[in-house]
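Protein in question kept in full:
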Amino acid sequence: MIPSLITKTTLTLSLALGFVSTTIKAQTPLLKSPPAGGNKKAFIGERIGITDVVINYDRPGVKGREDHIYGTPVVHTGYVDKSIEYGTATKAPWRAGANENTTIEFSTDVIIEGKALAAGKYGFFVAYDPKECVVIFSKDHNSWGNYFYDEKNDALRVTVKTIASDKSVEWLKYEFTNQTENSATIALQWEKVMIPFKVEVDLVKTTLDEYREKLKGELGFRWESWNEAAGFCLKHNTNFEEGSKWAEFALASHKDFETLNNKAQYLIKEGKPKQADSLMKEASTIATMMELHFYGRRLVDEKQNTKALDVFKLNAKKYPKNFTTYVGLARGYSATGDFKAALVNAKAALPLSPNEPNKAAIEAMIKKLENNKDIN
C-alpha cells in the first residue's frame, strides 16, 4: 500500500466589517488508525543477555493465497524495480512485512550470523530465494516500505537458509527461538516458509561496559551495585582485578554475608586463602540460614567436605530442628562418608518437608543412604 502524497485544503474567504478572514483546514491523519490493506501492526522484543532487541512490523495475512505468496508480487524473488510504481528504488528487496519499513533495533552491538553489527535501529529487508535468503539491515529505517531502498545504506547483509514448513502461518510473525544466555534465533514466519537468523551478544563485554557506566551515576551510591558487579566477574571468571576493587568498595560501604563472601572469593583467586578463611568465618557469624546452607553446598561442590560439614553444623546450631538444617547435615555427613549419621538427619528432615517435591527428594536421599551411596 502506497501512502497518499496529497493534502486536501479548503480555503474560505469571507468579508465581515471591512476585514478579510482566511481559514485553511488541513486534513490531518489520526495518530492511531487501522493499517491499510487489513494488515495488523505488531511489535515483539526480547532481551538477550542485557541487550534489548525490538522488532516493529506490519503483519500481512495469507487470506487464501496458500502456495501463491513466495515467488510472486506478494513476496518477490530477489530484487525488483519499485520506482515504476512509486519512490526511487530500482533494485528493492522484500520489505519483510507490509506497509512501512519493518525495523529492528539493538541496544548494544551484536553479532548476526557471525558478522558484527553496531547498536542502533535498522530497516529490515529480505531478498527472498527458495533456497537461501539475503537478510539486510539498512541504516535507512524511516522510508516507506522498500520504495526508497538503496543498497548504499546497507549496514550488513548475511545469507541464511530458507526453511520450508508443512504448517502454514496465517499472519506473518517474528519469533525468538533457541535462546541461550548470550544468543537467540529470530525467525520470520509466514505461510509455509521460515527465514531464521542468529543473533549473538558479547555478554561479558556488554555487561561490564554497562556496569562501568552505571556505577558512575546514581547506582554508584548503592553498595548493592558494586557487589553485583563484583559477583558477575566471579560468576563469569573474568575481570578479576577490577572486580576485586568493586568487591572492596562494596564491603567498605556495607558488611554482610554477601559482601564478605565476594571479597573472600577474590582473596582465594589472589592466592590468599588464610585471609579468605578469616573473612568467611566472620561472614558465617552473621549469615542467614539459607546463606549458610548454600555456602555449605558450595564447599561440597568444591570437595572441601570437612569444612562443609562444619558450616552445616554451625547452621544447625543457629537454627535447630529445621528442615533445611537437617538436610544440610545429611549432605555434610554424606560428603565425609558418614552415611549412618547422614541417614539419621535425612529421616529427621522428612516429617518437616514443606511440600510434596521436597518430601519426594528426601525419600530419594534416604533410599540412597540406606544403600551407602552419597546424596550429593
User: Anything to note?
Assistant: The chain has ten helices and twelve strands.
